[in-house]
C-alpha cells in the first residue's frame, strides 16, 4: 500500500464549493477536483483526456492551519451585445482562505504515485492553489520523503506538523489535527460532489464521493516551519 503526501501551503487558496450568481465560495479544505486539476497541470494532461486513474486514488486531507476566510471582488467584462453595444462589467464576490496549510494524502498504485511525484517536482504547466493567481509558497512535494509505504491515515499521522512560525508553537503542541478522509461507510459520512468526470469547458461534470470528518493524532516529532 503506497501513499503520496502533498503539501498545499500558501497565502491564498480557494477550493470551489457552492457558487450562486456573483457569489463564489470555497470549501474549508482542498476538494478532490481541485487536487486532480493540480495533478493534471503537473502532468500536462489536456482537458479532454480521461481522469479515471486519478479519480481512483483515495484522498485524505489533514488541516494544519485552517486559515481565515476572506473575500475579494473581481470585475469581468460581459460579451458585447449583438446590437453593437459595448457590454458592461460585472462585479463578483469571491471567497478564499488566507494563510492555510494542508497535507493531502493520495493512496493507490505505486507506479502512478511515483509518476505524480516526479511530475509535481517538474511540472509541465504552472501549479496553483485553486486559482491561477494563488501560487504555493512552499514546495508541494519532497524528492525523497513524499512517497511512503503506508496507508493513507498512517501517512497523515506521520507527516510533520506545519507551522508558519515559532510564534504559533501553542498550536504545534496539540497532537491532534482535523482530517477529511474518503470512506465507503455511510454512517457519519457526508456526500461531496467533487469527483471530476470531465474538465472540458462545455462538458464539465462531477460525480459524488463520501468523506468522513475525523481527528487523528499526529505522531511525527518534526515540525515544518514555513
Structural account:
The protein has five helices and twelve strands. It has 226 residues and is an alpha+beta fold. Strand 10 and strand 11 form a beta hairpin. The longest helix has 12 residues. The chain is globular and about 60 Å long. The mean pLDDT is 91.
Outline of the structure:
The chain contains five helices and twelve strands.
Structure keywords:
two-stranded parallel ribbon, 226 residues, alpha+beta, ten-stranded mixed sheet
Share in β-strands: 35-45%
Rg calculated over all Cα atoms:
18 Å
| Percent helix range | 10-25%
Q: Give the helices and strands as they follow along the chain.
A: EEEHHEEEHEHEHEEEE
Largest sheet: 10 strands, mixed
Number of helices: 5
Please give the oligomerization state of what you see. single chain
Shape category: globular
> What's the overall average pLDDT, rounded?
91
Unreliable residue stretches: none
Class by alpha and beta content = alpha+beta
Find the count of extended strands (DSSP E, 2+ residues): 12
**CA distance, first residue to last residue:** 29 Å
SSE layout and pairings?
Blueprint: E1 2-13, E2 19-20, E3 23-24, H1 32-43, H2 52-55, E4 58-65, E5 68-77, E6 89-108, H3 110-121, E7 147-148, H4 152-158, E8 161-163, H5 169-172, E9 176-182, E10 190-198, E11 205-217, E12 223-225
Parallel strand pairs: 3-6, 8-12
Antiparallel strand pairs: 1-6, 1-7, 2-3, 4-6, 4-9, 5-6, 9-11, 10-11
Amino acid at each position: 500500500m503506497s501513499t503520496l503526501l502533498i503539501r498545499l501551503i500558501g497565502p491564498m487558496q480557494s477550493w470551489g464549493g457552492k457558487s450562486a450568481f456573483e457569489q463564489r465560495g470555497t470549501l474549508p479544505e482542498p476538494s478532490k477536483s481541485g487536487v486532480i486539476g493540480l495533478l493534471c497541470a503537473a502532468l500536462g494532461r489536456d482537458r479532454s483526456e480521461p481522469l479515471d486513474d486519478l479519480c481512483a486514488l483515495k484522498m485524505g486531507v489533514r488541516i494544519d492551519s485552517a486559515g481565515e476566510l476572506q473575500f475579494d471582488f473581481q470585475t469581468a467584462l460581459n460579451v458585447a451585445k449583438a446590437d453593437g453595444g459595448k457590454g458592461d462589467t460585472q462585479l463578483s464576490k469571491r471567497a478564499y482562505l488566507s494563510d492555510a496549510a494542508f497535507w493531502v494524502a493520495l493512496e493507490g498504485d505505486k507506479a502512478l504515485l511515483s509518476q505524480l511525484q516526479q511530475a509535481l517536482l517538474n511540472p509541465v504547466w504552472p501549479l496553483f492553489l485553486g486559482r491561477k493567481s494563488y501560487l504555493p509558497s512552499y514546495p508541494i512535494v519532497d524528492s525523497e520523503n513524499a512517497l511512503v509505504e503506508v496507508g493513507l491515515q498512517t501517512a497523515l499521522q506521520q507527516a510533520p506538523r506545519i507551522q508558519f512560525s515559532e510564534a504559533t508553537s501553542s498550536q504545534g503542541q496539540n497532537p491532534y489535527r482535523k482530517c477529511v478522509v474518503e470512506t465507503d461507510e455511510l454512517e457519519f459520512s457526508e456526500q461531496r460532489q467533487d469527483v471530476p468526470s470531465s474538465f472540458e469547458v462545455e462538458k464539465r461534470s462531477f460525480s459524488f464521493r463520501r468523506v468522513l470528518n475525523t481527528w487523528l493524532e499526529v505522531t511525527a516529532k518534526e515540525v515544518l516551519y514555513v
